[in-house]
DNA sequence: ACCCAGGTCGGCT
DNA sequence: AGCCGACATGGG
């Protein structure tokens, strides 16, 4: 129930630190190991953008990450040994996605999603950050969520500098203690609207130990979900996001409007039992697939997707 | 101006 | 248990 296939022997990826550049390659073929834009901008993390050179950069944990795809390789810049270890963890590089994708591809609709967007990976984000950012996500669009998170970090997070971007200031995501003592009025500059009070309730409960995020890593999944849902403003969807993205509970499938549409059309019977432990990862492929093929799934009522290309069932 | 956005809450049946 | 409007804000 815990991890995904750990595959220490054949992770499918090789990594090496050359100077301060951390290079990640695919050991199986010449294809890129994973897609930076798909992984960083597919609606799981909200702190990454592209700079004027096209490099992806953003704060994760305590550090600024800056990366680019160069000739079938992913390169991270300004990387220390500690940062390299963090990258391994954050991008879950010890997890081999090949057998997972093979599993998913046994169902045709999932195969279409995986084949169209093979570079997606589910990140291992900080649990409190995942909880908070998905509290901010509710009834909101991704562009604006990124703005809210950015302003929250500027207002309450710890500032630091990076030699990668001289003269700029970056901000870590606030710790529970950074938020627990604040009032809704203090968060006004964030412009989070009705979500501000939810955010503060989460911070206070985590800070007070009333909510134990780490315990949710191992609790039976229904108990973990209920434990998080004691937070005012956290329902089943946000709880599942915190569990999947922040606590690596890969059996969780956050059901937002898009996933409801795509499941109804493509997997009306739900995920097959054999992929249930990793259904959250399959979800990431389906979620992106649905959004990128919005015209097929946006229809309110029947308007089934083109049965020609999206055959139902397996 | 209008609609919607990776939902949840409180108040109804 | 399930439906429905309100909720703050602003991007397209």
Automatic annotation (TrEMBL):
Keyword line: DNA damage, DNA repair, Glycosidase, Hydrolase, Lyase, Multifunctional enzyme
One annotated GO molecular function: damaged DNA binding
Keyword Hydrolase recorded: yes
Any Pfam family the entry gives: HhH-GPD
Chain coiled-coil ranges: none
GO BP of this protein: base-excision repair; nucleotide-excision repair
Enzyme type, top EC level: lyase
Catalytic activity field: 2'-deoxyribonucleotide-(2'-deoxyribose 5'-phosphate)-2'-deoxyribonucleotide-DNA = a 3'-end 2'-deoxyribonucleotide-(2,3-dehydro-2,3-deoxyribose 5'-phosphate)-DNA + a 5'-end 5'-phospho-2'-deoxyribonucleoside-DNA + H(+)
Family indicated by similarity: Belongs to the type-1 OGG1 family.
Identification of the protein by name: DNA-(apurinic or apyrimidinic site) lyase
EC number: 4.2.99.18
Residue span(s) of domain HhH-GPD: 136-291
SUPFAM superfamilies assigned: DNA-glycosylase, TATA-box binding protein-like
Membrane-spanning residues: none
Source species: Neobittarella massiliensis (ex Bilen et al. 2018)
SMART domains: ENDO3c
């Amino acid at each position: 129930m815990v991890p995904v296939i750990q595959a220490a022997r054949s992770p499918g990826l090789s990594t090496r630190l050359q100077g301060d550049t951390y290079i990640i390659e695919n050991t199986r073929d010449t294809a890129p190991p994973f897609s930076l834009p798909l992984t960083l901008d597919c609606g799981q993390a909200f702190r990454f953008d592209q700079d004027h050179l096209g490099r992806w950069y953003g704060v994760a944990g305590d550090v600024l990450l800056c990366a680019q795809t160069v000739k079938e390789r992913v390169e991270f810049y300004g990387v220390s040994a500690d940062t390299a270890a963090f990258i391994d963890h954050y991008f879950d590089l010890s997890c081999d996605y090949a057998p997972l994708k093979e599993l998913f591809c046994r169902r045709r609709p999932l195969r279409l999603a995986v084949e169209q967007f093979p570079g997606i990976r589910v990140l291992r984000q900080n649990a409190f950050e995942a909880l908070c950012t998905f509290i901010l996500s509710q009834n909101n669009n991704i562009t604006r969520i990124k703005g809210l998170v950015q302003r929250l970090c500027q207002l309450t997070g710890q500032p630091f500098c990076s030699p990668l971007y001289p003269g700029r200031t970056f901000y870590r995501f606030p710790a529970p203690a950074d938020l627990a003592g604040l009032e809704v009025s203090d968060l006004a500059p964030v412009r989070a609207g009705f979500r501000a009070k939810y955010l503060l309730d989460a911070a206070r409960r985590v800070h007070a130990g009333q909510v134990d995020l780490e315990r949710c890593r191992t609790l039976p999944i229904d108990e973990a979900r209920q434990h998080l849902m004691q937070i005012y403003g956290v329902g089943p969807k946000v709880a599942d996001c915190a569990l999947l993205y922040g606590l690596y509970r890969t059996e969780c499938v956050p059901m937002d409007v898009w996933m409801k549409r795509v499941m109804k059309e493509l997997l009306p019977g739900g995920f097959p039992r054999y992929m249930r432990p990793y259904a959250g990862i399959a979800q990431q492929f389906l979620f992106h697939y649905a959004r990128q093929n919005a015209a097929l799934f946006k229809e309110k009522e029947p308007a089934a997707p083109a049965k020609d290309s999206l055959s139902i069932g397996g």
